[in-house]
Design brief:
alpha/beta, Rossmann fold, 2 domains, five-stranded parallel β-sheet, four-stranded antiparallel β-sheet, 10 helices, 28% helix, elongated
Length: 373
Amino acid sequence: MSDEKWIDVGSSDELAARPVQELRVGTKRIALTCREGQFGAISGVCNHVGGPLGRGRLDGDFVVCPWHYYKFHWQSGEGEPGYEADRVPSHGVRVEGGRVLVTESARTKRGRLPHEPHPLARELTREPGPIRVLGISTTTMSAGHARYSTSEDLLQHALGATRERDDGACDTQLIRVRDLSFRACEAFYSKSARACTWPCSITQMDSKDQMDRIYEGVVHWADVIVVATPIRWGGASSLYYKMIERMNCIQNQATVANRHLMRNKVAAFIITGGQDNVQAVAGQLLGFFSELGCQFPQFPYVAHSRGWSAEDMENNELYVRNSKVLHEGAAALVHRSADMARVMIESTLGQGALVRGGRKGHELDTRAQLPGL
């Protein structure tokens, strides 16, 4: 005679109305499924980062985790074909007298396929060497139809001048965001703070996603990050926003996991446009990169705009092309940033001296914000 303990979880008619639902069986979260009149019961905790399988959906024979779309068989708990060993526990389930009964103990064990950690997950270590300056251009262009970009021109000039400094060369890289193919942020964070992971779950799941170039540059390589953007309808470029939405996973590590990925990094900005609103664009950039934990040099951006009523864009381009002041100003901005990064890296203040400041530079007590918890 079996010594399994069966728990009554509810009316079969009521429970059959939903393909997937989350239930408690004792202390365990269960994903109860109903498919073509038959019930299944598997663990409600996803193997990936603990997502709630019981709040997911059925896709054929598989329960799809709502956080990152990992799939497990609705009855056996096994992973997709080829990944069967990556499984969640399954429970016995039966119907008696119009009631659904589920075993308190799982009948199968959880299994995890071994895999190498993602390269981005490696330890944060700054190797000795010159200051490293990463330029990020967020202007967009049609492929195969290059045009002049005022913001990218100033950025390229500044990087070139930085490489040729008389007081010690810097290493530089330029990333043109338009050359990268990457998915838009899928708002995992809006489902749960813990659903936004480092490295980004999209990057972990999709080997073709090239946002890893940005992550590698800003987290592991750069000491100085210089972002160049045009002004588009009073804001930064659409590529800039697409990029920083995917960088939410960096900031969330400080808030959710108490892990600061951006130590001793300086950010600066180049902002140009035919129309005005420089200060609003600068404010957004400063606000976002301060949330990442970056520091800023004095006068942290160089900007140019011909104003609200200037629609003669050809003259705007001509002005920037020929402006010695703007080009020298961009170079000086990057020089200031490199000097500040050098002081931060070589200072004796200690690893945590410039960390934990600011509104979100600490773990948030979200429970205190919800009455009754």
